[in-house]
Design goal:
Elements (H helix, E strand, L loop, with lengths): L23 H25 L4 E5 L6 E7 L9 E7 L12 E4 L17 H4 L10 H10 L11 H4 L5 H9 L1 H17 L17 H14 E2 L3 E2 L11 H15 L3
Antiparallel strand pairs: 1-2, 2-3, 3-4, 5-6
């Protein structure tokens, strides 16, 4: 998932309409500049994307992205949560927030319980394209899964959180909150192979031959799963021929030959 695919060509149907007094060339240049800025933001994610978060553009819309976050610690440990990130056609103009929506069920104060939308407008009331970027969005999306308290959040801001029930449990009954969170983590794992139509991040169940291949490699080159079966004074490298031979054997065994 680290290899970022090229950006899709913008769909003409999604290009915003022309304002009065603008020539077609002016509108096209303005839109091309917005799209170019967005593509640069995406390119920068290759070096700056938060760990455990992946974002891939859709095939037919430059402003629509499919993402997934793997949560590695905290209450949401082992959760695999899928989402979409959509930018307005005029994204990069002032106060045009991106929209992040989870397709996986997420029980979190910052995620709407019915729509799955993340409260970016609460976190960033003023969206400034000169200092807010795609990496800003992804960093916030990751942060909401690792939050430990709300001591620095005022009552006025808390009142705007989309899931007030989750916030109440978080503050008054941590154990009940933890149980609800674990439910959504298990649900995310059960549904990981349910791929939404058009999604560019797709999960596929492991084929039987993969498991057989791993077992063959362990038996040939490992002892007790972690120690090489060769003496310390012998350097034994796994060659490409070794690997190809193991692959062929695994495929034969998987097909019942």
């Amino acid at each position: 998932m680290n290899n970022q695919p090229p950006m899709a060509t913008p769909s003409p149907s999604r290009t915003p309409g022309r304002r009065r007094g603008q020539t077609p060339s002016t509108v096209d240049r303005e839109q091309a500049l917005r799209d170019y800025k967005l593509s640069i933001e995406y390119k920068h994610l290759k070096q700056h994307c938060p760990g455990g978060v992946y974002l891939i553009p859709s095939f037919d819309d430059i402003r629509l992205f499919h993402g997934v976050i793997f949560v590695r610690r905290g209450s949401f440990t082992n959760g695999i949560f899928k989402f979409t990130l959509e930018c307005d056609p005029k994204y990069n103009d002032r106060n045009l927030h991106p929209k992040v929506t989870f397709s996986s069920y997420v029980y979190n104060p910052h995620v709407h319980p019915d729509t799955g939308e993340v409260d970016l407008r609460v976190a960033y009331p003023e969206w400034d394209s000169s200092k807010h970027y795609l990496v800003t969005v992804l960093t916030y999306v990751k942060r909401i899964f690792y939050r430990k308290d709300y001591n620095e959040v005022g009552e006025e801001e808390e009142a705007k959180f989309p899931n007030q029930e989750a916030l109440r449990l978080f503050k008054t009954d941590p154990e009940a909150y933890r149980r609800r969170v674990q439910e959504c983590v298990r649900e995310s794992q059960r549904s990981v192979f349910l791929n939404d139509p058009g999604c560019t991040i797709r999960f596929k169940e492991e084929e039987k031959s993969y498991e057989i291949f791993r077992d063959i490699m362990r038996q040939r080159f490992m002892e007790n799963g972690d120690n090489l079966s060769y003496p310390d004074d012998v350097c034994r490298l796994v060659t490409s021929d070794d690997t190809l031979d193991a692959i062929e054997q695994a495929q034969r065994l998987a097909s019942g030959e």
